[in-house]
Amino acid sequence: CETCSKEEAKYRCPRCMKYSCSLLCVKKHKLALNCNGVRDKTAFVSINEFTDLNLLSDYRFLEDVGRTADAAARHCIVHSPATKRLLHCLRNKARGCNIELKTLPVGFTKRRENSTTFNSTENKFYWHLKLVFPHCHAEYTLKRVPDDKTLADILKPYIDPVESDPVVCQRLKIYTTSPESDVQILMKIENRNRNSVRYNKLDPSRSLLDNLKGKVIIEYPTLFVVLKTQKNDMVILGQDGSEPAENKGSESSSLSSMEEGEIRDSS
């Protein structure tokens, strides 16, 4: 027994492979190692150690995943009339603001994450928003961001050297130490070929709603915060010399190629 080192081992933990002699030692080892005793079905197995039992385990694991996904897709709340009316209302309100809002099928991560709502009393969107800082490999998710808030105010808690949280400030040090004029806010243009990815440059002094007008949004906006002085592969529309700055024709009715590929894979 690897816990008491006295008795002969009778049991082996499926999770951490520790040997135990009794229920008491099993409980002690779980407490000491913070082990739940459940076998990790996704643990790495080298090709030299891979057996028919591992293959069968993987097959059953994939079957379980398929059943879980199917059960989630059939959930009555997801397909309830109230949920469909809410999505229809959101799309209509967005269309009234000159925003083409698209929603993904049930089961997609962005569909589950999205917490965007529309307040009819205030006649205002409260957006689910994702901020990506590629130079620091950092992402932050914001909920209930009012559409009349400027992008500069949205970014203050992250890149302002005075108002930002100390932990966040340290992580995004390259941004907080750079001049404000060096910061650019970009948003990916949807419905383009994968080998022709382009970004729209947004105006920090304008509200979130004003910046989203005339754009195609899939579920919720994702903003990329980049620095002009840092090298990146993000091409801003109109700055590559091959297309005009305003190319709204590219923002048409279908989903982006990435989402289309995911839909084909899931079907």
- Our Rg estimate from Cα atoms comes to 25 Å
> Any low-confidence stretches, pLDDT <50, length ≥5?
245-267
SS summary, helix count: 9
Write down the domain tally.
2
Shape annotation = elongated
Structural class: alpha+beta
Overall mean pLDDT: 80
**How would you spell out the order of helices and strands?**
EEHHHEHEEEHHHEEHEEH
CATH-defined topology of the largest domain:
Ubiquitin-like (UB roll)
Determine the N-to-C terminus distance.
49 Å
CATH architecture of the largest domain: Roll
How many strand units? 10
GO molecular function: zinc ion binding
Family: Belongs to the BCD1 family.
Protein name: Box C/D snoRNA protein 1
Organism: Sakesphorus luctuosus
What is this structure's SSE topology?
Layout: E1 11-12, E2 19-20, H1 23-33, H2 52-73, H3 81-96, E3 100-102, H4 109-113, E4 117-119, E5 124-133, E6 138-146, H5 151-159, H6 166-171, H7 173-176, E7 183-188, E8 199-202, H8 208-212, E9 216-218, E10 222-227, H9 257-266
Parallel strand pairs: 3-9, 5-10
Antiparallel strand pairs: 1-2, 4-5, 5-6, 7-8, 7-10
Domain HIT-type: 1-35
GO molecular function: zinc ion binding
Protein name: Box C/D snoRNA protein 1
